[in-house]
Amino acid sequence: QNSMVLSAAIFITLIGLIIYLHFVKIDQESLLVIGSLGIQVTSAYASGKESTTFIEMGQVKDVVINEAIHMQKVIYYLCILLQDPEDPQGVSEVVPLFQSSKPRLDCLIEVYKSCQEILEQRKTAPQSS
Question: Which residues form the Phosphatidylinositol N-acetylglucosaminyltransferase subunit H conserved domain (predicted)?
């Protein structure tokens, strides 16, 4: 009886670990910004599985560094502001980036500057109809 309980506990623990590695534990996050197309956000899980999200450049209003207070600490994170289709001046959604890796502020600033350069090129480029 005790060995059966122990076997069941080990089995449940292994299943939980597999689920954690496959769906929760993110090993790597990447951001690809192409001014004429959009922004691709990719998360690679510990199991090798990848999750990719694409945001069209027409939906992007801006990229910002946001701050939050968490457990007596200030946390900085990069966000994409999505334009509200009904109100061109408004924001419909805030998409946080790098939530698992939590890069330092100096790293976020480098990524932010690169994103802003691409967004500025898009704004100054002649719009084709």
Answer: 30-99
> pLDDT per position in the chain (129 positions), as tens?
788 888 999 999 999 888 887 777 888 999 999 988 999 999 998 878 899 999 999 899 999 999 989 889 999 999 999 998 888 788 889 999 998 888 999 999 999 999 999 988 877 766 554
Question: Which own/partner pairs from 35-43 qualify as long-range (CB within 8 Å, at least 24 positions apart)?
Answer: 35/118, 35/119, 35/121, 35/122, 35/125, 36/122, 39/80, 41/95, 41/97, 43/100
Structure tokens at 49: 């599985």
CA torsion angle for 129, 117, 50, 45 (degrees, to 10)? -160
Question: pTM (2 decimals)?
Answer: 0.74
Report domain extents, the chain: 1-124
